[in-house]
Model the fold of this input.
Amino acid sequence: MTIPTASPTAPIRTVGTAVSGTEGPAIRITGPLHDRFGEILTPAAVAFLTELHHRFGGRRHDRLADRMRRRFEIGNGHDPRFRDDTRHIREDADWRVAGAGPGLEDRRVEITGPTDPKMTINALNSGAKVWLADQEDATSPTWSNVIGGQLSLRDAIRGRLTHTSEDGKEYRVTAEQTPTIVMRPRGWHLVEKHLEFTDRTGRRMDASGSLVDFGLYFFHNAQALIEAGRGPYFYIAKLESSEEAKLWNDVFTFSEEYFGISRGTIRATVLIETLPAAFEMEEILFELREHCAGLNAGRWDYIFSIIKNYRGRGARFVLPDRSEVTMTVPFMRAYTELLVQTCHKRGAFAIGGMSAFIPNRRDPEVTARAIEKVAADKKREAGDGFDGTWVAHPDLIPTALAEFDAVLGERPNQLDRQRPDVPVRAEDLLDVHIGRPITAEGVRDNVSVAIRYLEAWLRGIGAVAIDNLMEDAATAEISRSQVWQWIHQGQSTQDGTLITAEYVEGLIAAVLAETPRPSAGSGTDDRFEDAAAVFREVALQPEFPAFLTLPAYSRFLVETA
Done:
């Protein structure tokens, strides 16, 4: 691969920390250049980002507008259905996706986690088959995390990543066989405010988080990954339609052509984690078929998407305590079984989701309970036909591996299991009746978890162990959206207490009063007051922000040069 020094249609010149075009589109770096940032934000890399935004930025905005229209329609009583205009795709039995690339043939256990140096090394030493290197929900998108994560990945891929913690502990990659890296860029809805794109007409706008994360990783690592016998692989988050999938496919094809890489080298695994996408699984596979390896059941965001889309549709769409919305309730069973059937019909891998239970090395009882819960979850997934699954902690890999080994044996997957016994209808995907109450403890847990997670997120930590569960942006979204829905649908707890904004304000005060805080003079500043302010904005206001990270990012995480 020969890296061009600039995009052929966007010549560049460097002005301080800014890269601007002598003509045409340009990207300007508005964030500070911390140590080693220049290794990632090179003129040629920024030129590639500029070209991606020039070619695909307008279509991204069109797809986001489509999302808003669809959400409005569902909110006004138009339930999603399998599309009539794409029936021919579903009925054509002949097409298949590209399937596994080198290093993706066996995905029975994948570990997920953020891309800071310590977590990168731990993931690469974990013994998992695949590492989901997460620049999305498990990463707080501070400027340091966004570019620092790219540095970690670049160094790791070249075998030169080391890390020394504040207490002097040294971390290095020691595993003889490291997991295949599959990087997850941010979703289409997220922006990167430390890079400003100016289009041909002179309009200025924030850069796309998706294009920045994908573009920088691909630019710096595609050739090195290919030479190592693997490839540039991606998890694609938050898709809501096949049109969005086609946009990603066009980004992939253009990027391969830009660097002279064989078409189809990129492999993508799409998370089915929104309600609209569940009705377009085959269409999403079809649009990405040249680059697609499989689908993943993104369970936590999927639950959030159900709540978000049906939050105003009446009491029959109200879900009970978050802990009661398990993988065995009707709409979750329908969604996951349809995913396995759809994937195997088209030669795609079906990857299971992540149980939130995590071990605690200081508490054997908690660890035993986590292992029991995770074993049951993975046994169910393997029995349903999934080809692999996620875990959030290295200590859970043996548990997950044992359940999949019991089903797979020496086979790398179970693509041959076609599941003709799955007759999922549209009504099944919308059957949200669970028959369990909302409890006072459930409301309080949602408030407590959301505020404690947001406090860590504002300090730059995107994956947090809270009450022996792994929380990320998706689980926090469930917590705050349930509170919003319960208030606006006039719900009461099992003991008869009406859930109002005033009631929740009392819980906020109690959480802030009871949560341990750093002592004065400790040198550690907490962000609990800011976290409570964000929670009030996304859970207690009349308007419902589509994602809690949007206002929180704009208010608190943007650095200036």
Summary: The radius of gyration is 23 Å. The longest strand covers residues 191-198. Residues 282 and 418 are 14 Å apart (CA to CA).
